[in-house]
Amino acid sequence: MKKTATTPILFIIFNRPETTSAVFNKIKELKPKDLFIAADGPRKDKIGEFELCEATRKITESIDWKCNVRRLYRKNNLGCGKAVSGAINWFFKNVDCGIILEDDCLPNDSFYSFASNLLDKYKDDVEIMHISGNNFLNNQMHLDNVYYVSSYPHVWGWATWKRAWDRYDYEIRDWKNKSLCYKIKSVKGDIWNKLFWVSKFDSVNYKVTDTWDYQWVFCVMKYNGLSLFSGTNLVSNIGFGVKSTHTSGNNNRYSNLKTSSLLNKISLSSKRKGQIDLIEEREVFRTKSLTTLIHFAYFSIFCMLYNKLYKKI
To answer: Where does residue 309 rank: exposed (0-12), middle (13-18), buried (19+ CB within 10 A)?
Structure first.
């Protein structure tokens, strides 16, 4: 695959100068023609965060190549969910397709060309909604000449099209006020995987979790969309730790995963989507675990109490 720099990049930053600098240095190597930079505002109750946000933004000012740069800098803090989804909305008001990198997602040299080529190849295939630089199955499916198709989108370095993102609903309104039976039937996988995702979608629906990516998973599932991912891991999440919103704990098995390059020519794997989904459900989402049952029970009780209180108001 020939590396190009014509595919637009959205770089989402916040308050972490160290990780932002590492990822931005990789972007500088690419010298993209079109670069969009979005930053959430500092939280008023966090001492020193204003200065951290300013220092982080300053890193992205060192652009020494010909580049169309657009910036979306928030004065006030919107939180992880609305800030990131709002940035992606803004991005796709200006482009038809592009690559999304957050401040802790460090791509290797193969990622940009991998994503760019597949964006072009599948631009008119509405079934394909997502391209991911993540391969969390490296131990089982490590091949440098293929890419795979899956039902599950991973978002630590990814790409998509405006046609797909336009289907996104931050509020997941199609999930609201649905029966448990409907929810379980609408989610993919075996019963353990279903319980896992029902609890995640409910946590978003009832504002327990401030995020944007579960809604994207729901969107891809709702439209029976497909995700493409590389035969090797192309992006490493370098942001695990106490400063992270959702990825705390340096000992997490997905922290700082090694990356490896692809060959110049790659093709779609002969493995069927169903086979890939089963492996991901078992290995990535850790189905058939006590944690799944605890999450499901917690949110089931929470939702029952919420609905009773809501009806009384």
So the answer is: exposed
